[in-house]
Each structure stands twice: as structure tokens, then as C-alpha cells.
Amino acid sequence: MIAWINFAILIFATLLFLYYYVLSVSPATREKIFGAGEYARCGQDRAIAIGFEMITVVSYVVYFFYPLATPLPDKFPWDLWISIVIAVAIGIPSIWLMAVGMKDAGEEAIRPKKEHSMYGGIYAKIRHPQAEGEVFIWLVIALLLNSPFLALFSFVYFPVFLLMCFAEEQDLLWRYGDAYAEYCKRTGAFFPKSGEA
Question: How distant, in Å, are the alpha carbons of 55, 169, 185, 190 from that of 194?
């Protein structure tokens, strides 16, 4: 029973994470529709999204202790240290990319600001470094927990993050107009465009 309740929480927390994050990356659109104050509300929605994201992480840990009865084995067929090595190999560049993206985005990473300008740093090469790094974190956690089921479930977050990036880009096009459209032409979403160093 606990396993199914936890799995339901994981599903709902994932959906609510997506919902509130999409709301949080739409300040310009929301301001156009609802008026002033939407940038602050987007910051609140971002905090709520992060809360649901943390619930998904807790659900992963709970799953380790209360797994669902599935045809998959409870653990990978190899020793735990192999899962840890794979997790570290994925986790280090993912965390680095996410951290650099947050540093270069500044306060905008947590709280959208109307007066914020377009980014420099790593954003001169790729448009979504935080998402690109963050999307792998669930797989890293699944590997550290040595769970094949969670490793497979982690792939749910790839379309979730693609949807979030798409929503953010729509608002940024509204917010910055032609300047953002030109930026998109010269900058890859997740990888530098060919010819970029």
C-alpha cells in the first residue's frame, strides 16, 4: 500500500512540478493578460515548483524502501559500485552545467525580474544549460539507489523538461521579441550550434 501511495505522490508531484514551472516561466505573457505583479507571482510559482520537485526526490528515496511489485528486478544485476561510478560520471557534468547556468542567469534562475537582460556566459553557447543539467539528476539518484525501475522512470523527465523549455522560450520571445529570435538562430537549445567553440 505504501508503495502505491508513494508512486501516486511521485506522479502527482511530477505533474504539479511541470504545471507550476510552466507558470513560473511565463511572466511577460501573464503580465500582458493579468497586469502588473505577475513577475512576483511567477517567483512564487517557481518556489512552489521547486517544492514539488523536492517531493519527487523524496519519493525516489521512499521507493528504495517501498518498491512496487514489477517484473523488473529491485536492483541492477551489477555491484552497487558500478551504479555509483555511472552516477558520478553523469552527475558531475550535469551538476556543473546546472550550476554554471544558475550562476550566469543570476537571480533570474529563481525569481523572474522584468528588468533582467538577456544572458551572457554559458548562455552565449546554449539556451537551456540549467534544464540540460537538471534533467539527468533523477537518473543519477536512481543509479545511486541502484533501482532499475527508477532509472526507467527517470526518462519521464525528458519530455517534462522539453515542455518547460518550450514554454519558457515562448515567453522569452514575447518578452525580448526579435532579439530573442535572433539569439535562438545563433544559439543551440541544448548543444552549441556547429561552428561554435
Answer: 38, 21, 12, 12
161: helix, strand or coil:
helix
Considering Cα of 96, then 101, then 104, then 108, what sign does the dihedral take? Answer: negative
pLDDT in tens, 86-131: 999 999 999 999 999 999 888 777 787 777 776 788 988 999 999 9
Grid cell 519527487 is found at 56
Give the torsion through C-alpha atoms of 194, 124, 117, 21, to 10 deg. Answer: 80
SS3 string, 101-127, reads HHHHHHHHHCCCCCCCCCCCHHHHCEC
What does pTM read for this prediction? 0.88
SS3 at position 193 = coil
3-state helix, strand, coil in the chain (%, to 5): 75, 0, 25
Grid coordinates given for 8: 501516486
Contact 43, 109 (CB under 8 A): no
